[in-house]
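Hello,

Following up on my earlier ticket. Below are the two sequence lines again, exactly as submitted.
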Amino acid sequence: MKKWTMTLLSAFVAMTVVLAGCGGNNGKDATGGSASPSAGASGSSGQGGGKKNVTLTYMASQGWIKDSEMELAKKFEEETGIKIDFQIVPSDQYFNVLKTKLNAGEGPDIFGGQSGYSEITMNYNVEKNAVDLSDQEWVKREDPLSVEQLTANGKVYALTIWDTYSSFVVGYNKKLFAELNLEIPKTYEEFKNVSLKIQEAGVTPIYEPIADGWHHVLWFSEPGPNYDKLEPNLYDDLNQNKKKFVDSKAMLDSLTQLKEMYDLGFFGDNTLSDTGSDTVAKLGSGEFGMSLVAQSVATELAEEYEEFEVEDIGFFPIPLTDNQIYYINPGGPSKFIYSGSKYIEEAKQYFNFLTKQENLQFMLDNDPTISNLNFPDLKNKYTAEQQKLFDGYPERGTDIQNYVNYVNPQWMDIGKDIVAMLSGVIQPVDVLKSIDERRAEMAKVAQDPNWQ
Amino acid sequence: MNRAIYPFYFGIATLVVYSIFFVVPGLMGIYHSFTDWNSYSDEIRFIGFDNLAKIFSGEAKYLSYIENTLVFTVSTVVLKTALGLFFAIMLNDGIRAKGLHRVMLFMPSIVPMLVVGLIFKSILNPATGLLNESLRAIGLDFLAQKWLTDLNWAFKSIIAVDIWKGVGYIMIILLAGLQSIDKTYYEAAAIDGANFWQKLTRITIPLIVPALVVTTVLNLLHGLKVFEAVYVLTNGGPGYATDVMYTAIFKEFSTGNYGMGTALSSVLFVVMTVLGYFVVRLMSREGDER
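Thanks for your patience. The regenerated structure is below:
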């Protein structure tokens, strides 16, 4: 009998410990549930004075929520009593976590996501998981190109507040160019010659952080509008499956040129292990002459290196296939409201608050990484070099990944294919074939009528 | 013999828990390999052997993943066993501070593979890593390679890191096996004039076959399941050169292609079961015969 009581008691204790552990985790788990009843929402009581005692969970990937927005959220809480609980997830895990939660029916009240029709329908299933925001006031004011990116079947599903005109461009060391008597290249041949001269002078022409896995794909995807210009209607034909990537000579040329740049040693010896976090240091030390960068790099360089002024870095768009179009990405990280949230009205209130003119200007003024937002009538922070860039390249176009379907979701795979191409394992045409195969797979799964 | 026999129902609770959390999901996984389960649509359709056909057809890179996994497994099994045995024999007897040496060799096993991977990623960086910088400092520049990005060295580097981490564990197991060998065998052999090599092959190895079975099976399963080492060090790169089954499965699941992911898992499951079974049979039989 004694043995029985002891075993029963220990089993009981073990079970209690396990259950307590599980229960405790639900409360403490940072990436845990949506508006879990225990956290925040001590009911919608406290209606007195229009202030509610509500917590909205807002999940996003690292880098999508700026400090300025968090400050505005605090102001919002003071005004309305609605608290925003920011849950930041590391970028390489974010989409796994988000998709798991959406599939499990436990999405956070507000979630971040990228833009583009195939992204929002295939990856987030917005028609089921997000709230239709077409009737909101800010939709009329937001840049229509951005609104288009977040629209599916006529309904607007997210709010985008982002610097959409700040594309990745080739930033170059103006002093170096002046020393070597170089001019801004307008064609690929000129770009090649400029790089060769820089190489002869003992400087590595281009810093390219291939190790990050996503950066080097930009060389191929950003000049997209030029491919469309050289082969009219290419974008629409790709979307309607009338043409494939492998049919495009412009794209093949682009990849072949990229391979040539690698083979000539323009990226340096260590490029496969180089990371983006070192870009400012590499440009600042004078070891490298150019790099494909975000335009804010000029400001960062000026802050860290005394010998650099903001105006010492000039810009030009990627000249592969002789591109002279300033390509833009009208979308950007956007905010969605989960359809299963208990606080949809409060979330909409938050969006209305963020898009108030004075709050947008606040975000613009207090974020050093952006120069403008995709809303009208704001005072921008463009530097002289940026203004020169916009004035010098008046032709605009949307890059591939934001117009052509089923490209963005396979970004990292394209990255791996390009590395295989650079290493000589496959040919440039094989990269295009792989892209087509993956597009076909995604289209079939999404039951896209153009791929039947 | 006094064997306390426990009623069978003492084990039922464990069996139930094990079934629910391991067996049932495993079987469900195998079922899903024959469907097109994915994250983009809510319906799951039975597609038969389409997934398996795609894996073995050779047009995608799946066959190279299988090949990489097998190469990795064979290399680590052979090298870990050989090195583990070497260290075990060295540290069995006759060395000072053998306790310290054993601890130093075993320590890497308890560090999580993720941590080891990240540390070695830094050490093996071609430009600034500890290894290449040390080689350059002592004038051996020509030995400095691009360990993780050169097609010839990437996979070898991953294998080396895995061996570095795992050899201590194997050494401990073989050490236990060595210490169970009766010293009188060696004395008798010495009297008969046997040299070191003969002692090794005629006495040591036959008598530690049970321990070798254990280590071989452990190494085999570990090798087939390798994931963190590859993911952290190269993420399957450069290109697809070092991708193994599990990084492929992870990628399939990340892109929402669950059906294909479970198909790959099922293939791996079958391979592991077959190999494990044969290894145990083969080596136990050998042990019994002697």
